[in-house]
Amino acid sequence: MIEIETEDGVELKFRNKNANPWTRNSIKIEANITNLESNTEFPLFTVIKGTEENFITKFTFKEKGKYYYRSFGYRVRPGDWDSVHDDSVIYELPFEDGKRIKIGQAYNGKVTHQGQFAYAIDFTMPIGTPILAAREGYVIATESKFTEGGFSPELWTKANFVSIQQEDGTVANYAHLNKGGVAVRVGDKVSAGQLIGYSGNTGYTQGPHLHFEIHKPNKKFEATTVPTVFKTQNGERDTIKEYFVYWKPKPGESKPVDFLLDEDIILCKLNAKRERIACGSENFKLGESVIVSLDFIQPGDHKIEVTVINLEQSVKPLMLEWRSRLENVYEGGYFELSKSPYIQGKWKAEVKVDDRFRKTLNFSVGNTNIK
């Protein structure tokens, strides 16, 4: 805020700090004055743009030479509440080529994507996943000091993030980043596809993911999200859907026609925290837990049947059967390998979905210290 005293009154101006040509800040200005007047009505809602001083108004003396008083207050929200999002823009997925990421929550998600956050997207991903800018812009704010995450209200303001102002005056927010997981600085201009940070699990969250939103402020100083479209394996202008899997298509890659890719039917190990590890394994030890894992690229209600057969010994086949659930990040049925030496050797797991054979998974069970 800049106040300039003149012979007949006071001029009021504002200038953006950390300014660049795209900088827009929405601001509410209040004035408390005595023996001064202006043609401008207060409180004043306006937008401060660019790098130059923005003239607001001039207050002139009602009675020159007599006592006068002025006091100004203001509140700022990054972005332009008068902006119109450029709906012709196609956003890039905010992660690297070759990764396939499932959506944990999309538009109007039941957990937190309601009201002003209705058009936010949660990309489920492991901690430390590189995050790329989905559209070019200038970095206007970052935070990287927080360590804690959980589904607790006191953590709402403790998410690490990068905020990038875009050419149309809207702001892109990338949140829940890892501690120290910011790779840009305030004032940097970033290009679409540029590394800006690393995913985490900080702030108000039920698990590791990237919260992505495009928003603009309103005159209640809330961030109001706006819908966006992305280039995905499904097309040039794809609207992200909840529980679907997305990736960056390779040149010439056709749109998938199935809800499940055979390469996403694999065996994993189950650790003590009930997490999938060592996915793609073909060798297991006695005493371990084995998961038959299916990652659907489109959610749906499907019957899954797995028959586990020992190829070397006369052991009764193990049968697994369950139905997929729309909200699951992945589908998996597991079985435990007892420490009996009779189950050592070669096995296969035959997987059917909706009574259609999909894949045979071959694996071996080896010895370990039997107690």
From TrEMBL:
Domain of life, source organism: Bacteria
Short name of one Pfam family: Peptidase_M23
InterPro entries referenced in this protein's UniProt entry, alphabetically: Cell_wall_metabolism_enzyme, Dup_hybrid_motif, M23ase_b-sheet_dom
Transmembrane residue ranges: none
Ranges for domain M23ase beta-sheet core: 117-220
Protein name: Metalloendopeptidase
